[in-house]
Amino acid sequence: MTAVASLGWITIDCDDAGAQAEFYRTALGWEITFSEGPYSGITDGVVTIEFNAVEGYQPPQWPDLGGAKQFHLELMVDDLGEAAAALLEAGAAQPEFQPGGERFRVLTDPAGHPFCIINRAAEN
Q1: H or E segment to which residue 23 belongs
Q2: What does pLDDT average to over the chain?
Q3: 37: which DSSP letter?
Q4: Phi/psi of residue 49, each to 5°?
Q5: Residue 118 and residue 100: Cα distance in Å, rounded?
Q6: What is the pLDDT of residues 85-112, one digit of tens each?
Q7: Could you give the CA distance from residue 62 to residue 106 in angstroms, rounded to a whole number?
Q8: Domains of the chain by range and CATH?
Q9: Distance between CA 15 and CA 109 in Å, rounded?
Q10: DSSP assignment of 72-123, as one string?
């Protein structure tokens, strides 16, 4: 199939673009490539995630009982406990509702976006 487009980057709205970039730099080990005004970005050299500070930003709710998510990142990890501890130290929060058992854990980033850390071994 011939593509109509290619992915330029992913933009995530938040309240503090610099803090989001720093959090995901720590989580993913990617490089912060720019941070100017309400915009910051990170990349692994292939994919870029841009963070856009939006006035009046309101984080999504977890669990989202209404069924509408803004986005949801899935991060693969080797050890759920170790990864959760490192991400909590970097600024994540852990909601009370955890539907994943030993397979995955839901955390929220500093702007309140839910994301999952998934046990890599459980996916094989």
Answers
A1: helix 17-28
A2: 90
A3: T
A4: -115, 125
A5: 9
A6: 999 999 999 999 999 888 999 999 999 9
A7: 9
A8: 6-55 (3.10.180.10), 63-124 (3.10.180.10)
A9: 11
A10: -EEEEES-HHHHHHHHHHHT-B--S----TTTEEEEE-TT--EEEEEEGGGG
